[in-house]
Amino acid sequence: ALLIxxxxxWLNSTGIRRGAGFQNLFxxxxxxxxxxFIGLGFASGKGSWEHFSAVAGSGMGxxxxxxxxxxxxxxxxxxxxxxxxxxxxxxxxxxxxxIPVAMAGAVLTVTLLYILMNAVYLYAQPLxxxxxxxxxxxxxxxxxxGAGTGAAFALIIMLMVLSSLNATILSGAxxxxxxxxxxxxxxSAGQLHPQHQVPARSLxxxxxxxxxxxxxxxxxxxxxxxxxxxxxxxxxxxxxxxxMRRRDPGTETYRAWGYPITQLIYLAISAWLMINTxxxxxxxxxxxxxxxxxxxxxxxxxxxxEGEI
Length: 309
Prior knowledge:
By secondary structure, the chain is mainly α. It has helices at 2-13, 16-43, 50-56, 62-79, 84-87, 95-124, 127-130, 136-145, 152-181, 200-216, 219-247, 261-280, 282-304.
């Protein structure tokens, strides 16, 4: 994991074209592989459509709903990539037009792919047999295409992980770069490489943090830390829309589709996820809050001394 993170950091430090080129290539390969898996899976004829009727007839009580909230921790993370566009908005051509189109297109594409992937899983196996099963994709390939093909699922996972990790490294460094340019982080992080014109120092600072997290935490722990904090800040962002519209009621600067119904639904779901995670994973959730809290005094310290560091 450390080696892959180092290689992708180095790749992005050599220029935006290489980093973006790698991202485009692996995103297309990942999508093509998933589409092939979906199409060939249904075409194999070795599953059963009766598995879907069993799911349609099943109910969901409070206990099942609570467990669903725990499972959604990972799901929230998989859908979180659309926010990355905001981090790199300064390097996007015609952002007013391209960012909304890219955000909507990305969310719709990912949603469709995930629904179809889960449909293939359910086509191959009844819901009861998937309960407690860790390698659902591996088992699905084995059922639909025979023994020995399950290992191909590792290729799909590898392509998607590389694409996701590269997008995170490429975009994350731009946050530190922007903060440094505003005097709210180390000044060196706000410098561009003289030749490659990318925030190379910001990228390598980020790698240091990545390495520390890899060494100190397990995947499940880090996922819960990140997603819980992500949900908290998403909740605050949704709440901020109400605050900003109230402060500036005479303009259309702060707009959102379906306001205020869609935002209230979003806030309610986010609040449920936060409470449910605190109940089932209190230690990981509190660690996530603690990590953010450690940065608060540094933020206000830099804000107070803006332009002096």
